[in-house]
Amino acid sequence: MKRRCGENSHETSSPLTTRLLHDIDIPLDLTVEILKKLPTKSLMRFRCVSKLWSSIITMRRDFIDWIVTRSLTQTPCDAHRIFNMNLRCYTQCYLSFSSTNARNTHKESVSIPRTAGQYVRGLFLCLPCKSLEAAISNPTTRQYFNLPKMKHSGKGNCFFGYDPLENQYKVLFIPKEPAEQPCQVFTLGDPMAKQWRNIQGIESQFPIRYAYREICINGVIYFITRSTDTSFEYNKLISFDIRSEKFHHIDTPKTLIKLGWFPINYQGKLGLMYCKDCVEIWVMENAEKKTQRWSKIFFYEMAGFEKWCVPGVTRGGEIVFSNSGCLYDNDVLRVFYYNPNCNSMRYVDLEDIYPKESRPKTSLFIWTIPDYVENTMCLY
């Protein structure tokens, strides 16, 4: 009797369970809301559950936007790029994440095959040493997308930007000698645009020798150019509208564009920062108008900043300081945060992420990205 009951139980439970599983039909909207409750690491694992789940997590724009927004509302997370440098060439890049609050400090690191350069909305533009074979890296999904080769070879600079209205990521290439080669643009994720496109060059509007120091804010890439006149007085601040793909000159006081100034994202506005014998920040107040107005919002005179650089400012207004020179195997890996509102300083120690005994016998560089966000977007 016992055996018969066991057999009957076994015979009826398996088909019933299978039938119940097949009968469950979860509405799409409810599925999306359930997935939104999960941490990003779990979402990355659950991509393999079904094609539907994978599509929601990595391709659905409203879901991806929600993940990015969620990152901004959580405890601020900073990404620290640690480069190995050998014979004047970056050979390896580690991306370390740190989030700090009163109760918990969480750290982790990711190895990136190439040098992680410019950062936009959770993605990195990567360039190998001595090459223009650009690639895009997404540390959240652990994906790496190689961009196609450019139509014209030659030295130059690649800039990375995002337009929130059109939901487009674009890579802009400006040749070192703009008079000889056209500027090029590549649109990430556009199935109709699988190659670089030539656009109207910057040389026809602003004669320059080369461009450098870039920041992307609200669909506009800002960068500094060196004029054909080698005098520092002729540096210019140029903007590139990602949607229209047009260049514009930004009116800037000449004293703010000399050697040593660089653009930053200051709480959603374009800022220019100087960090040498003092720390000085100016912010552009009316970016949408033809004539720009600049305001000095911070000045702190202090010696000893020559060996430091300022990668940016956090959402909370903290100024980030990292060492601008080479760090060696015995140096301390540390990033400082200064709060001008309460005149306080804190730091993040990266020693346990990259301990001295595991470092190669090469010089190191650190660059911090304030307010890093997670992005579940699929790159291919």
TrEMBL record:
Classification via InterPro entries: F-box-assoc_dom_typ3, F-box-assoc_interact_dom, F-box-like_dom_sf, F-box_dom
SMART domains the UniProt entry points to: FBOX
Gene3D superfamilies in the cross-refs: 1.20.1280.50
Domain F-box: 26-66
PANTHER family documented for this protein: BNAA05G37150D PROTEIN-RELATED, F-BOX DOMAIN-CONTAINING PROTEIN
Protein name (Swiss-Prot/TrEMBL): F-box domain-containing protein
